[in-house]
Amino acid sequence: MHTIIRLRMVIILIAIQMTFIQNSIAIGIHFDDSQLGILKLSNEYYELSFSSENGAILSFVDKQTNEHTTLGSNNMCLWGVYENKTNRYDGGCFFDANGGKKFEYEWITENKKLIFDYTSENDDVNAQITVTPSNASWVDFSLNIYNHWDTAIEFIAFPSDLLFESSAIQEWILPLSPGVGINNGFFSENRSYVTSYPAPLFADYTAVSLTNSEFTLYTLTEPDKIYPVHIGFIFNGGTPSSAYLHHSFEDHVASGDSWQSPTVRLDIGRDFVETAVAYRNDNHLYEHPSLIEKLGSQYNQIVRSPLLKADMYQIANQIGSTFSEYETDVFPHLPSPSIFHPVTFWDGEFDEQYPDLLPTNPSLGTVQELASLFESAKANGMLLMPYTNPTWWDVESPTTQSISQTIGLEAIVALDRQQQPIFETYNGQGGYVVSPHSPLVQGALQDSIADMLDILPSDILFEDQVGARPPKMDFNSYTTQPADYALGWLAHTERYFPKTILMTEGGYDALMATESGFHSSILLSKELGATDDWWGDDNWRPLPIATIMGRDKTLFYQHDLATETMTHREEVLAWNAAMGYLLSYDLFESANGGGLHNSWLDIVSVFQNQVFSHYASELVLDYQTPVVDVNKTIFQETAVITNWHDSANFNIDEHIISPLGMLVEKEDNSLLAGLFSQFSGQNLREPTYIVQNNHFNSIDMWHSSDEEIVLEVDWPNHWSEDDSIVLQGLDDSGNIVLETPLSIVNGMIPYTHDGLNNSLEIVRYRIYNQSVFVQSYFPMVFQQKVFAPDLIVEAVHVANDFVQITIHNQGDRPTDKGFWVDLYIDPDVAPTAVNQSWDQLGEHGLVWGVTETIPVNGYLTLTLNGPYFDSSRSHTREITPGTPIYIQLDSYALGSPYGSIAETHEIEGSGTNNIVFLLSGEDDLSMQSSQHFSETKLPYASLPRR
Length: 946
What we know:
Helix content: 10-25%
Radius of gyration: 30 Å
Largest sheet: 12 strands, antiparallel
């Protein structure tokens, strides 16, 4: 495994963040108003200056580097409100210490808060801002406004339009899925760009990398609330050398009403990787259900399955297949497992008939024939995910027509600020944006979803546009708050999760609570030419922001419909590997590729099944640029090196990565894959995709090349030159059609791949060591000495405010990986096996992440709030004497049947000895005197996924 230069394990950052939070009264914060006209807040990280005349930000200085980040509030307005119709505006810059629009400030020493009050004697807008400094690198702001206008406020800019010197900006970072970094070329060309959250932005987050510092702005979300917001950089025409960062909330604050902002956090000195993790932690995204919880027993099948788009209307026009003919015409060409994504099976063309997806198009077949097709696909190892669109209804659909003629459109449509139905056109077809708050809409969607789950036996429900709708004000009479349009669609998903697995177009942080898949990326905008218009295509790069924030909670895919970003070419496969996306493919052959007989179908199938599935839910920990146009993405247990050059190779160790290629490698050396011009020191005639999966007693090899290749592979350390090794060739069904002896030569195992010249139709090879017994987790029928670690709980004491667990490695090998320890406090169900975390079985528990090697006969003691305690994953309560307590060692490793460490009892199949039970304070295990022999600390990245 290539050396990981910069480890940012989430646990470290959570621990740091929790330390900040626990400082209820921050020490080291200084307030100074002694200088005329200036108020200063400072600590060891920053100095933040305000105008004492109106509260405007004057500067935000990074004290670690003495860098001035923002130049302050544009036009001296810390906040501003406006409405579009009359261009009416009010803001902090109109207030001062004297006159009818008065500004006052107060520093509250007891709880370290700075209060700004803006009051007017006229019928204007009053406001109060609370500034809460921390002892860390951030400062929090919140705003209350009171509308005394005779009209509604539509937008609230806060903090309003922070100025930056254009030449100092190195990169502007936005979470446009998965993320983009916009370089200084955008600013030198005097461009402007504004976008929105909750879509297309994944989070209300933006960052600016400066010459000698970092600046980040993000919002702390609130339960059951999604605040629509617009974020952008706008060229400052009045001062050509500067641009201002625009951040405004969209809402409808009626005359006489008040409005309160969420907390907005300004952070200084931390780069986007650190602050993206901070956003995840501060907004409790880690509390959303994990992918293994959402997908359950289908997790392994789903992450091994490429998504196969099947536009059934297009396919019928191209190859003539109706529903009843898929069994013979289509399915024999498709990989298993896979996700079959049928589109345009309804009575009409694409973007017609919504929400009425049944009956089917009579030219394709009947509903019964489509249901049979679904069953046949399941029998062929596929999962079914039909396309639906609940948010936009065709004006000509039966449901829309019926409601329009009997009740009236106002009962179902989203109404804009002028109380007019929101009407949109797609592919020349008009329709209405419907309100998720309407009972009639909810009822019709319930019927439509029942059709997809009951009449058509679907495994996954795809709902277009749910995660891609930008902010809208919805004035439908059933809507409580006009700004709650997105919240209404979140509530819609909550009605059907966890009854079914949900995926959607787009996607953002709040939807991770219910959605298992997000389908979109900035790559499609690039392919359609939009990014060139927005920023200039030489002025940006992709960044894995969303996959830092939530890749363990939802799967990321390219757009489910757009052929431009299906995995039909090298760049898309490399892009997906680097950004943490899974693979999609179009079964309709278009100018962009795809089709039933394209060699890319095999590449997509192999890479999803044998490569991407191995790190499908690992969080991104870091994103580095070792050299120009080469990036390294560090996941929890995997690294991906991507060569973005379109003509130049990139050398790394014994490999050469081809142009637009990548190298994927697991930390434990179980996987090596990519697009190579040289593999393990051997030159290849042409760029070739190679996948090497290392197992205990075998090495599986796959190659995309049609040419004959002579390769050598490294042999595992536990193999010997005297071992009996054979090369097996396997056909498409996994049958062994070739077996020939191999030898280890100079520490390598050479073999020949025959390509298309092989009449045996070999699709992959297995280098099989007949002398090494496979690690089996079932009872063995022979006796063999097992050398492995074996962890047991040696001693434990649990009381209300005291926890001490002593672990003993009684095996004959030291631990070589990190592992989790779960303590279950009075669980509803007792743990019996690995991958049963405390939060799955009860309401309270504790977690430790052990990253220290425990040698043979060594001991390690864990304590509450000790070095390995993970407070972010723990939730405790009062532990009274007699409380049932369970402890499980090596408790969780996503996708593993034995945890992180294969122990003696697991290899021998003798049953677990990792779980103990006791009653708190009464039946503690004996607190024996145990010496702590452990010396070596493992890297944090050695902890398994959970």
